[in-house]
Amino acid sequence: MSQHDIVIRGGTVYDGTGGAPFAADVAIDDGVITAVGKVAGSGAEEIDARAQIVTPGFIDVHTHYDGQVTWDPFLQPSTFHGVTTAVMGNCGVGFAPCKPEQREWLLGLMEGVEDIPGTALAEGIKWNWESFAEYMDAVAASPLALDVGLQIPHAAVRAYVMGERAPALEPATEAETEEMARLVVEALEAGALGFSTSRTVKHKDVKGGSTPTLKAEAMELHGIARAMGKAGKGVLQLIADFKDTDAEFAMLRGMVELSGRPMSITIEQDDRWPDVWARVLDNIAAANADGLPIKGQVPPRATGLLLGLTASLNPFIMHQTFRQIWGAPLEQQLKALNDPEFRARLLAEEPEYPAGEIVEMLCVGYHKMFALGERPDYEPAPETSARAVAERTGKHPREVVLDWMLERDGKALLYFPLMNYHCGSLADVEKMLTHPNTAFGLSDGGAHCGIICDVSFPTTLLTHWGRDRTRGRKLPLEWLVHGLTGRNADLVGLHDRGILAPGMKADVNVIDFDRLTLHSPHIVNDLPAGGKRLIQKTDGYTASIVSGAVAFRNGEPTGVLGGRLIRGAQARPSGARIAAD
């Protein structure tokens, strides 16, 4: 008879602590790792991991599956990339608490902020909740192939308490602040992992209105934080523009000083204010020196927009000629764009963009437009940009990008590194990644369905930074795995996972690292109501184990639904034997 449920044989173990890799077997029983080393006993299932690496399951702390989690057990495309725990409710947006008359508005806010089709959300969400605790119960009752954690979003809380005064950006009264704080603590007691908010002008609802938390004042934020401190529960997560860096940071630092709760802050480099991110990190470093647990959430590559005929945007959207065919079936668009007269008229025409730096950049920022092939290059050299190619060939950059878009029968995509690529390389990102007070995040899994597919961040960390990079230094694979596992687990208080050691939760990846390869993103129409989204698959994830059972093979679901809703922070198992402790 077999002595273990699963034995992973002969792999090179990267255990999630950041320590050096070592050869070992891994035994799993009843959802728990029971041995790491030489395992003599057999397993009911044996996985041959020779010439492969074995890691803890990846923990993605920044997703937006708040709606999708209620209808999709597999949370693709995150689970194509070794994610076994996904934390959602980031950036202050989500769907609870919610009064019935606010449902349409919350759908529009999520559609505007996170580019998730409102029709898909309206079709998929059943709204069998009002309070956040009821929402958690609805998620807990949903079938899941991986574990999920929830955060309570400030926008929903603010609207629930303040009604129409919230999207009008009016300041909260003391009584309203007390009620918001009560709701946040109630959610934490029900098992929310934390509280999130947004203070960026980039976040707007589907009608162009600002996110209702944009101008929340210190009294409101500090009141909520103080209540979290009294409860002794939850993490804080937020995004802000930091135009007035020091003053803004001082207010946010006050939330940590009053609560004692850990905070993570989105860090991105914006071409319009290219040095702000570094100043924010300086403030974070100073806070940590004073004993305050604040980290920057950073990406492993540029925040990359994907432009094309099948995507939501492309460089010709502000050309009146192109707008004649925008939204038409792809075959009709291709027919028009291959017509010499239509093509000539389009290429001769200047875009008519409204006021807005980002829209203008997407139309004429040819120095940041790159062809995205079957094997995406996420650190493209400036000499491969549309502008550089145009200069070499004597063409207008417009013609270069149009030809690129027409490749692969019109399904080709352009890569536009909007954030984190000011210097034409990932040099700034390298500084972010290696800063002592940052954590890996910002994949936005489930969001930006028609224009961004950064959900593949975990695979980029392993392949680009750990193996393939040529335009700068590589980073140690054991350190990268630690950031995806043990360190992210600690960031959100999930101390029962993220490390391969006896007694720990058996969430494990077996990866053929030499074969690990990212494919090009592509559009599928598989959301409710036929909504479209970008997905990106890989080769190389041999098996992803969740709670002791193989949930995914080669990134595809096995049908095992052993995931669960995580309720609150998870303590280190009493019997866990971790050398790093």
Please give the share of residues in helix.
Answer: 25-40%
Helix tally equals 18
Q: How many beta-strand segments? A: 24
Residue share in β-strands? 15-25%
Structural class by SSE content:
alpha/beta
Average pLDDT level: 96
- State the assembly state of the protein chains: single chain
Spans of at least 5 consecutive residues whose pLDDT stays below 50 are: none
Can you walk through the features of this model?
By secondary structure, this protein is an alpha/beta fold. The chain is built from 18 helices and 24 strands. The strands form 5 sheets. Strands 1, 2, 3, 4, 5, 17, 22, 23 and 24 form a 9-stranded mixed sheet that branches. Strands 6-7-8-9-10-11-12-16 form an 8-stranded parallel sheet. Helix 5 runs parallel beside helix 6 (218-231) and helix 16 (457-468) packs antiparallel against helix 17 (477-484). The model has no long low-confidence stretch (mean pLDDT 96).
SSE order and pairing:
Blueprint: E1 4-13, E2 22-29, E3 32-37, E4 43-48, E5 53-56, E6 58-60, E7 83-88, H1 103-114, H2 118-124, H3 132-140, E8 147-153, H4 154-162, H5 174-190, E9 194-199, H6 218-231, E10 235-240, H7 245-259, E11 263-266, H8 276-289, E12 294-298, E13 303-307, H9 320-323, H10 330-337, H11 340-348, H12 357-364, E14 370-372, H13 386-393, H14 397-410, E15 413-419, H15 427-434, E16 438-440, H16 457-468, H17 477-484, H18 486-491, E17 508-511, E18 517-518, E19 522-524, E20 533-535, E21 538-539, E22 541-546, E23 549-553, E24 556-557
Parallel strand pairs: 1-4, 1-5, 6-7, 7-8, 8-9, 9-10, 10-11, 11-12, 12-16
Antiparallel strand pairs: 1-2, 2-3, 5-17, 13-15, 14-15, 17-22, 18-21, 19-20, 22-23, 23-24
